[in-house]
Write a structure and sequence with these properties.
four-stranded parallel β-sheet, Rossmann fold, 2 domains, 20% strand, binds aspartic acid, alpha/beta
């Protein structure tokens, strides 16, 4: 008997429609999950498919309320023995954020695989159908179990923690930089060569019980002469701050003077793509090192930590573990 793969559709370019043949100026989040699978009949040979339309949006409009609904839906459906895994279709702009959120909050070792496309469904050589087919292959495979949430894009399999969008236009836009892909898909066969070592899914301390939204935090990007007033504003209007510092999480003396006096949690990440920030790099004693998490991923871990009521002394431990 074929196992079931549940496709949870959220929108993005993979569901986008535009001028025939063109790659820009289209409307993302237009086609439904059922429209998408109708164009790829080969998917039906891989598994029984169930579809759920979670939302149909440009992924820049993603919210923590939708994240929580998505994670709760996966957690509920994962209890059904005939469900082998999940595919989440998603816009590429914030795919890495949703993937990392799910990596910390879904409580199953069944594969949860995000995919999308760079070209809308109406473009020449649209990349959505092959990415979707590959994602279903991975979601229904035994090999993909237990590696945390995955992103499948342009023949490759990435871990949720390390993946990011690295090009605005190229079909290989999703990448894990110097850490690389953990596997590949060739003609429907799944090959996984590495596994993430940081805690994920069933091994995390994060639970969504009783939550319908996440606390807000601000991500502040440092650049030459940037006015630290924005930090004071963020401290008054949000529950935490992530600084995208220069180099190994550095910033000006002006920034330092303001950050030194803050009592809200401040996590220091870097605006540099490949790098690592350890506590020894920190310029202010009241801050936490994001290790190699990007600012936008550090913001997710900080939001979950604050929602859990983490104390200042727990935060560095969390950033060292997740
Ligand atoms: N703006 C689109 C989105 O993130 C881009 C894409 O899907 O590639 O929804």
């Amino acid at each position: 008997m074929k196992q079931t793969v549940v496709i949870l559709a959220t929108g993005g370019t993979i569901a986008g429609i535009g001028e025939e043949g063109k790659t820009a100026g289209y409307q993302p989040g237009t086609l439904t999950a059922d429209d998408l699978i109708r164009t790829i009949p080969e998917i039906m040979e891989l598994a029984e498919i169930e579809t759920i339309q979670i939302c149909n949006i440009n992924s820049d409009d993603m919210t923590s309320e939708i994240w929580i609904d998505l994670a709760n839906t996966i957690n509920r459906m994962a209890e059904r023995p005939e469900v082998a895994g999940f595919v989440v279709t998603h816009g590429t702009d914030t795919m890495e954020e949703t993937a990392y959120f799910l990596n910390l909050t879904v409580k199953t070792d069944k594969p949860v695989v995000l995919t999308g496309s760079i070209r809308p469904s109406t473009a020449i050589s649209a990349d959505g159908p092959i990415n979707m087919y590959d994602a279903v292959c991975v979601a229904s495979s035994e090999e993909a179990k237990g590696h945390g949430v995955l992103v499948v894009f342009s023949d490759r399999i990435f871990s949720a923690r390390s993946v990011s969008k690295a090009s605005t236009y190229h079909v290989t836009a999703l990448s894990s930089g110097e850490l690389g892909a953990i596997g590949v898909i060739r003609d429907g066969k799944v090959f996984i060569y590495e596994t993430p070592t940081r805690l994920h899914t069933v091994s995390t301390e994060f639970s969504l019980t009783g939550l319908d939204t996440l606390p807000k935090v601000a991500v502040i990007y440092f650049s030459v002469d940037s006015d630290p007033e924005i930090i004071r504003y963020a401290a008054e209007h949000t529950e935490g701050i992530v600084i995208a510092g220069a180099g190994a999480g550095e910033f000006s003396e002006e920034y330092k003077k303001v950050i030194d006096r803050l009592s809200v949690p401040v996590v220091v990440s870097s605006r540099v793509d490949n790098g690592i920030i350890v506590p020894e790099n920190l310029l202010c004693r009241n801050t936490v090192a994001a290790n190699n998490l990007s600012p936008q991923k550090a913001a997710i871990l900080l939001r979950l930590a604050i929602a859990k009521g983490a104390k200042a002394e727990d935060l560095q431990r969390m950033f060292d573990q997740y």
